[in-house]
Amino acid sequence: MANKKVSVWTDIQFWRRSAAWVTGFATILLIWLSFDTIGQITMGTNADLKNGVDKRVPAATVINYHIDYKMNKKRGHEVPVIGEKQLFFGKEWSPKDAEALLRLGKLTEQAKNCMDCHTLLGNGAYYAPDLTKAWLDPAWQKGGPMQGMTGKNTVEEAMAEFLQHPSQYPTHARMMPNLGITAEEAKGLVAFLKHMSSIDTNGFPRNFSKTVAQFKAGDTNAH
Amino acid sequence: MNFELFTPFTDVVPSFFGWLNQGPMTLTIFLHTLIVLPMFWIYFSEKKRLQKEQ
Amino acid sequence: MLTSIKTNEFRGDKSKELGMMYFRVALILFGAQLLMGLIAAIQFIVPGFLFELFDFSVARMVHINALVVWMLYAMIGSVYFMLPDETGVETVGIGLGKLAFWVLTAAVTVVVLVFIFIQVGSGTETSIWLINEGREYLEAPRWADIGIVVVVLTFYWNVFATYMKGKQTGIMTVLIADLFALAGLYLAGMFFTDNISMDQFWWWWVIHLWVEATWEVFVGALAAYALIKIIGAKREIVEMWLWIEVLMLFGSGILGLGHHYFWIGTPEYWWEIGALFSALEPVPLVAMFVHVLYDWGKEQGKAKAEGHPGAVMNNGPAMAWIVTNAFGNFLGAGIWGFFHTLPQVNIYTHGTQFTAAHGHLAFFGAYATILIGMMYLGVQYAYGVKKLTSTFKSKMAIFLIVFGVLGMTVALTIAGYEQVLVERAELGGGWTAFFAAQDLPWYIQAQVWRAMMGVVTFVGFIYLVWDLLTIGKHAKAAQAAAE
Ligand code: HEM
Ligand code: HEM
Ligand SMILES: [Fe+2]
Question: Of A70, A174, C19, C412, which is least surrounded by CB within 10 A?
Answer without folding.
Answer: A70
